[in-house]
């Protein structure tokens, strides 16, 4: 009932209304980080005129679609090792300002109980992302925020008294502004990268390379994996430099698609691969369809006299379609008696199963990416307040920063921590 009342209040307050020409603070973007900043700005400085502006007609789209519509609020263990982009030391300082226990307590306070799943992911007990969004909207309104949408902010300019925030709807002056506009991932939700241009116009220098993170990867037409669409198995995906040095490795569920590969292991390694390939065109991904099993160990299994053929060895360990596809890729008859396998064929099959090179053709792009890699470097932001070092009075939080985490609630935890830090400081 409390959540329903809060949601009702929110609907009343964020309906389009006339507004004054000035405010004490303006938050641009009503996503996860922006809502968190609004809640804590209002709670920290009650009575101030706080405006939350968003260009979307439908608020909180990223929250609503996250976690398959359930919203993976956070993970039970979060530290900087799960993140990339800016230095992990800097990321860790912000994460510690609002950690997982505080996140769980905050959501409980606003009416959202969280449950831990076996993977460590934390979801609302309702299994509905709408529960999370309504609670955040209600908390922001209860803290005194006036939420107006659609109010797309086209420009933020520096003035003698602070800033002027403007769009087709008009303009408003404020001494302090928070940019919580997101990056470029899932542009249909409103994150089209315009916030990065606003930051650039105010003196920031976003990273030169801004690219999709947590994104599915594609393989060339005709590749046998594309014929296995729907097959899902645990697998180890490894990133290698052109000189043969292993750079990253992830073991998790892996999904074959009609375009290539997806699933948690691929999403997690995608940003590292795309970043590495830019500097090293010879960077390579390989996949081990039997995590923990080496080529030598599989070679020994393929010499077992009791097994009737290669597929008989693979069948207890892999789906039949995948096993047959790997045999064909290695040029081996899946039913050929093992004693008739040549040493070369046996070793080639073992290598194909345990270290298959993936000729990645591309990625699904920002339209399908769950996060943006790159953004405003944390070196340009004061970590204790999320205030700009180059434009005093401007604060930045969420995905606009050069911080991106693994799949599993880590990016939301960055939004809660950086939004909180900006909110209590603005």
In words, what does this structure look like?
With 426 residues, this protein is an alpha+beta fold. It folds into two domains: 2-210 and 372-425, FAD/NAD(P)-binding domain, CATH 3.50.50; 217-363, Translation factors (Elongation Factor Tu (Ef-tu), domain 3, Beta Barrel), CATH 2.40.30. Helix content is 32%, strand content 22%. It has 13 helices and 24 strands. The strands form seven sheets. The chain has a seven-stranded antiparallel sheet with strand order 18-17-14-15-16-13-19. It has a five-stranded parallel sheet with strand order 7-2-1-11-23, sandwiched between helices. The radius of gyration is 25 Å and the shape is elongated. 50% of the residues are buried.
List keywords for this structure.
426 residues; alpha+beta; FAD/NAD(P)-binding domain; seven-stranded antiparallel β-sheet; five-stranded parallel β-sheet; 13 helices; 24 strands; elongated
Number of domains: 2
CATH fold topology of the largest domain: FAD/NAD(P)-binding domain
Name the CATH architecture of the largest domain.
Answer: 3-Layer(bba) Sandwich
Gyration radius, rounded: 25 Å
Record field, number of beta strands: 24
Unreliable segments (pLDDT under 50, ≥5 consecutive)? Answer: 1-18
Q: CATH superfamily membership of the largest domain, which one?
A: FAD/NAD(P)-binding domain
Largest sheet: 7 strands, antiparallel
* Strand order of the biggest β-sheet: 18-17-14-15-16-13-19
Distance between the termini: 32 Å
Which structural class do you get from the secondary structure elements?
alpha+beta
Helix content: 25-40%
User: What value does the average pLDDT take?
Assistant: 94
- How much of the polypeptide forms β-strand, as a percent range? 15-25%
CATH classification, class level of the largest domain = Alpha Beta
Shape assignment:
elongated
């Amino acid at each position: 009932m409390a959540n329903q009342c809060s949601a009702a209040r929110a609907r009343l307050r964020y309906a389009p209304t006339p507004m004054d020409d000035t405010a004490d603070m303006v938050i641009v973007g009503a996503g996860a980080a922006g809502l968190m900043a609004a809640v804590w700005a209002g709670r920290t400085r009650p009575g101030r005129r706080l405006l939350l502006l968003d260009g979307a007609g439908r608020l909180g789209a990223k929250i609503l679609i996250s976690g398959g519509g359930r919203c993976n609020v956070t993970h039970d263990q979060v530290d900087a090792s799960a993140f990339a982009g800016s230095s992990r030391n800097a990321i860790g300082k912000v994460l510690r300002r609002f950690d997982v226990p505080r996140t769980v307590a905050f959501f409980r306070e606003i009416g959202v109980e969280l449950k831990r799943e076996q993977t460590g992911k934390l979801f609302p007990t309702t299994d509905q992302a709408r529960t999370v969004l309504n609670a955040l909207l209600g908390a922001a309104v209860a803290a005194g925020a006036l939420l107006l949408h659609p109010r797309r902010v086209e420009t933020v300019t520096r003035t003698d008294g602070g800033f002027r925030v403007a769009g087709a709807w008009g303009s408003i002056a404020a001494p302090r502004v928070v940019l919580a506009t997101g990056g470029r991932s899932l542009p249909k939700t409103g994150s089209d990268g315009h916030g990065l241009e606003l930051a650039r116009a105010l003196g920031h220098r976003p990273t030169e390379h801004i690219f999709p993170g947590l994104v599915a990867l594609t393989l060339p037409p005709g590749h046998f994996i594309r014929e296995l669409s729907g097959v899902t198995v645990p697998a180890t995906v490894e990133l290698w430099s052109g000189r043969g040095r292993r750079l990253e490795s992830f073991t998790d569920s892996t999904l074959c698609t009609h375009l290539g590969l997806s699933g948690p292991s691929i999403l997690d390694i995608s940003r590292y691969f795309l970043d590495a390939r830019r500097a090293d065109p010879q960077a390579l991904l390989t996949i081990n369809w039997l995590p923990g099993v080496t080529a030598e160990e599989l070679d020994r299994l393929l010499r077992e006299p009791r097994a009737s053929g290669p597929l008989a060895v693979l069948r207890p360990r892999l789906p039949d379609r995948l096993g047959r596809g790997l045999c064909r890729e290695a040029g081996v008859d899946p039913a050929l008696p093992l004693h008739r396998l040549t040493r070369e064929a046996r070793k080639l099959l073992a290598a194909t199963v345990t270290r298959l090179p993936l000729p990645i053709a591309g990625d699904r792009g920002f339209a399908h990416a769950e996060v943006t890699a790159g953004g405003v470097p944390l070196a340009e932001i004061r970590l204790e307040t999320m205030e700009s070092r180059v434009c005093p009075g401007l604060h930045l939080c969420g995905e606009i920063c050069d911080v991106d985490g693994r799949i599993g609630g880590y990016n939301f935890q960055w939004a809660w921590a950086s939004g909180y830090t900006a909110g209590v400081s603005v």
